[in-house]
Each structure stands twice: as C-alpha cells, then as structure tokens.
Amino acid sequence: MNTTTRRFTAGLALIFIIAFTARLALTHRFVGLDSPPDANANSDQIDYELLTHHMVTGQGYTITPGSHGTPGSPGTPGKPTASRTPGTSLTLAPAYAVFGRSFTAGRIWFCVLSALTCVLVAWLGAIGFNRAVGLLAGIGLAFYPAHAYNAMHFVSETPFGFWLTLALIASVYAYHQRLGGPVTKWAIDALAGVCWAMAIYTRPQLLLAVPIAGVLALILFAMRDREHLKRFAVQVAVLSLVLSPWVIRNAVVMGKPTMSTITGYGLWGSHNDLTFNDPAQRGGWVKASVLIDADHPLSGNEVERNDQATRYGLDAIRANASQMPALISAKLWRLVTPIKDTDNSLVQTAFAVGWLAVAPLMLIGLALGFKRSPATAALLLLPILATLASTIIFYGSDRFRDSVAPVFIVFAAVGLQQIYRVLCTRRSVPHIASFDSQQEVTRAA
C-alpha cells in the first residue's frame, strides 16, 4: 500500500468517525438513544419499527392494534400489510435480531449506516472521478444537515442512501471494469442488481430509474457497445429476481401482485380539489382522512381502498387537466425550495443553509461531470431523474430531494474541486489532484 492509498484510507476512517460521532451526539441530544419512534417527528417510522419487530419475532409482516400507522395508511390492524415495502424494516432487522426490540440498538445501527454511507460516497466519488472528489464528497455528506437529521429517526432515507450508494458503486465499477474474467464481471453485476433491488425495496419510486437506464443501455447498443447492454440485462434480471418474492407474496397474501398498497394514496393525496385550488396545498400532499367524503368513500380491504384512491386521483387529473402544468411547477418548486415545511426554526435554518450551499456546486459539478466522465455522470444522474419523475407523478418534497443526497453531494464535490483548481491556477498555487483518467481512478480506488 503506497503513501497515497494510506492517506486515502485514513481519510475514509476519519470521515466515518466524524459522521458517526456527529449523528450519535445529535440523536442523544435531540431524540434520546432509548426513545421510541415519535409520530410527531415522522409518523412513517411508527410503521417501519413495528413491522421490523413483528418480522423478527415471527409475527409476519403485519400491523397490530394500537399501532399509529401513517395517517391515511391502508395498513389493516392485525392483518398482513403491503402498505410499506420491506426495505427499511429489513435493514433495521439485524439490530433487532441481535439485541431484541432495543430502540438504543436500532438508533445506533442507523447512525452506523448513515456514517458508512458517507464512506461509501467517498469511495463512489473516487472510482467515478478521483480521490480528491471522493474525500470532498464524504466530508460533505458527513456534515450535510438533512442526512444527519434523518439518521435520528427510523425513516427510509438512511437505509435508502446506504443501498443506493452501494448500487451506484457496483454499477460504476461494472461499467469501467476492464480487468478480471467473466466470473468477476458477473459477480459485480449481480451485486449491483441486489443493491438496486434493496434500494427499491426501501423507496419503490426508484423503480422509475429502470426504464430510464434501459434507454441509456439502448443508446450504448446503438453505439455498438453490446457488452454493457448485456451487463444491464444481467443487473435487471438479478434485480427482478430479488424483488419477485415480495410481489409473489402480495399476490398470494394480499390478492394483488403489487409493490405497495399506498401508491393510490400518494396519487389521490397530490391530485384533488385542495391541491388544484388551494395555493397553500398546491404541489404537496393531503391526507386521505381530509379527502374522504360522501363522493369519495374508502371501503373494503387494503388493496381495494388503494385502488379506490387511485381512481379518485385519476378522476381529479382528468377533471383539472388544464391546471396540470401549474401543478407540476408547484411540485418541482416544493422539491427544490430551501425552506422546509416545519415549525422547528433550527431544523429549517440548517436545511436551508445546507441546500443553498450544495445546490449551485451540484449544478456546476453536473456539467463538469459529463465532460470528465460521461458514463459515471449518467449513472449518477439516474436516481435524480427518477426523483424528478416521481415528483411529477406524485408530489414535491424536500424528503424526496434529500433521499438522493449521496448523489448530488458527489456532483457538488466535483464542482467544488473545479472551483478550487481555478482559484489555485489564477494564484499559481499547487492544487489538489486533478481529474485522473478513468483507468487510473478505477485502479487506484
């Protein structure tokens, strides 16, 4: 191991220590390590934590009487549910399997995952661009307020960021891999497929990235790059294989082969009389409990209620088709606005400062990334495009934006490095590593 590699490894270790210490301290100070999930902070975590407990104790993927559930959630007390995809609960499960239903163990585990994601982001930046970008990205994510905040709660953002970053590392490495035999290549593709599936299990909106990636693969095929079309096919095949048990389970247990029985609530909650006509609600999401009336009842089992909600949402879209451009604009604004919808002024300020610092650097890095390594930039862009598509279909939220923070932080690191290089060039000061060739970067990382 040469000196440069040792320094990079030491940098990764330091990033983990800083990120983990910060997240553990924040959780202890503002939440409490042994505290149960708080519905007031985020009601989703009530479901995720309880589902984990039931899975680990052999009660199945069920919601029981007394659980809060998400307002408007189709989860039926005492019966199997598909309202939440199992990625978040599966990721929390190891902590509960080892320590029992320990909120302390679960919260520490989420802090570990969040800190590991910072290290993985540094690795992703290194293999995609260079080590300097990697270290900047890892440090940036360690201090990014939204990423640290989400580690304090049992929500999907922390496990999603972990699995998404692993998936991108495998995919970027697979694309640039030129060494090793067929077994090595297929193993990397299989790992990528598994990680993409786990990320989709955590936030199913990421499924929208698959057709986008398919278009990219077809473009490569048209450019006579058949190898990468085959590798894309392998990743999709593995991804489908990993997702199929959940879909089959829902077909048998719930009566419908579906990923989730909550998508209809998202569609109806974002397309209704309030979101079309009330400026305060436009572009956002309204609870089903607010929308239910004599003309819009919900009845039957979980699947049937979701189908009814889907129909109400589609009816609202058809009835207000002329207003859709304005609604989509409002959705996109909610996605990118620095002002978080919260009464906590400290959180609101921290989120705004973090996003305002990162956003312009991200735009610079996005443009530069396509010049320096088009394939890497295109792969990293996939979850961002999927987030934009999900926003257009459903609604806008800073949670959607910050769920892909590991990706845009890498682009921000590219932009920051370039600005530093320009300043150093003008002042004739030695600058940090420039963009290496892709072969050098992959071999070094």
SS element count, helices: 20
Strand order of the largest sheet: 1-2
Radius of gyration: 22 Å
Beta content comes to under 5%
Instruction: Please write the string of helix (H) and strand (E) elements.
Output: HHEEHHHHHHHHHHHHHHHHHH
Tally of strands = 2
- Amino-to-carboxy terminus distance: 12 Å
Summary, kept brief:
The chain is mainly alpha-helical.
Keywords:
mainly alpha; two-stranded antiparallel ribbon; 445 residues; disordered C terminus; 20 helices
What features would you describe in this structure?
By secondary structure, the chain is mostly helical. The protein has one domain (3-444). Helix content is 71%, strand content 1%. It contains 20 helices and two strands. The chain has helices at 3-30, 44-56, 87-99, 103-128, 131-143, 145-150, 157-176, 182-202, 209-222, 226-253, 263-270, 273-277, 288-291, 302-319, 324-336, 345-372, 374-393, 398-403, 405-427, 438-444; strands spanning 62-63, 79-80. The protein has a two-stranded antiparallel ribbon. The longest helix has 28 residues, at 3-30. It is globular and about 70 Å long. The termini are close together. The model is unreliable at 68-76 and 432-445 (pLDDT under 50).
Annotate the secondary structure layout.
Layout: H1 3-30, H2 44-56, E1 62-63, E2 79-80, H3 87-99, H4 103-128, H5 131-143, H6 145-150, H7 157-176, H8 182-202, H9 209-222, H10 226-253, H11 263-270, H12 273-277, H13 288-291, H14 302-319, H15 324-336, H16 345-372, H17 374-393, H18 398-403, H19 405-427, H20 438-444
Antiparallel strand pairs: 1-2
Helix pairs in contact: 1-4, 1-5, 2-3, 3-4, 4-5, 4-7, 4-19, 5-19, 7-8, 7-17, 8-10, 9-10, 9-17, 11-14, 15-17, 16-17, 16-19
